[in-house]
Amino acid sequence: MKINSPKISGVLTEKNFQDVFDEEDFVLEDCEIIGSEFVNEAIGRVQIYNANIQNCKFTNTDFSNSDITDVRFINCDFSNVNMTQSSIHRVEFENCKLLGANFPESSLGNVRFNHSILNLATFGSSKLEKVIFNECSLEGTDFYDCKLKQLTFEKCSLDGGSFEQTPLKGIDLSSSTFDSLSVTLSDLKGCKVSREQAVQLSTLMGLLIVD
């Protein structure tokens, strides 16, 4: 699946994330931020546009109602970050840690998570369209009541994940691995799985397979 990459200009101004407090409307744009720490903060709605952000730490920070567009995050730590009701479009997370990150009621479009950890993250009641998870760990991740469209899991670990009340039609799980999933039989209709996964899922749903 082809998605739109972040549109980031070649000329960016170096900034520190603390600079957001210098802006009345909490806007960061046309910038590059490297090695900044912004933890245990709550600033309400933040807007980040046209930015390259690398080696930064944002653990336990409240970014709810944020608007993030055309941004590339590299080697950043978003553990336990709150991004409830946020808009995230044309964004890449490369080698990032998003352990326990919260994205409920958010909109994600043209987003790539690459070689990142999203264990115990939550996306409840969110819309994800043109989103790629590539070689990511999503163990115990919650996709409850989500709308998924053109979403791809490529060689991911999905063990213990929850897709309750989330239709998986058109979603390909065949290259990923899991021992258990929370999903209903009706929501699996149209989902692409490997033969081995089909046996796993049937067993999880209480079916007895005989030769």
- CATH architecture, by name, is 3 Solenoid
Tell the overall outline: elongated
* SS-derived structural category: mainly beta
The largest sheet has its strands arranged as: 1-2-3-4-5-6-7-8
Output the radius of gyration: 18 Å
Major sheet characteristics? 8 strands, parallel
Strand content: 25-35%
CATH superfamily: E3 ubiquitin-protein ligase SopA
| Number of discrete helical segments | 1
Give a count of the beta strands, DSSP E runs of length 2 or more: 10
Spatial gap, N to C terminus = 37 Å
Percent of residues in helical segments? under 10%
**SSE string, helices as H and strands as E:** EEEEEEEEEEH
> What is the level 1 CATH name?
Mainly Beta
Commentary on this structure:
The structure is a single chain. With about 210 residues, the chain is mainly β. The protein has a single domain, classed as Pectate Lyase C-like. The chain contains one helix and ten strands; from the N terminus they run ββββββββββα. The protein has one helix at about 195-205; strands at about 15, 25-35, 45-55, 65-75, 85-95, 105-115, 125-135, 145-155, 160, 180. It has an eight-stranded parallel beta sheet, with no helix packed on it. Pfam families: Pentapeptide (PF00805), Pentapeptide_4 (PF13599). It comes from Jeotgalibaca ciconiae. InterPro entries: 5peptide_repeat, PA_immunity-related. This is Pentapeptide repeat-containing protein.
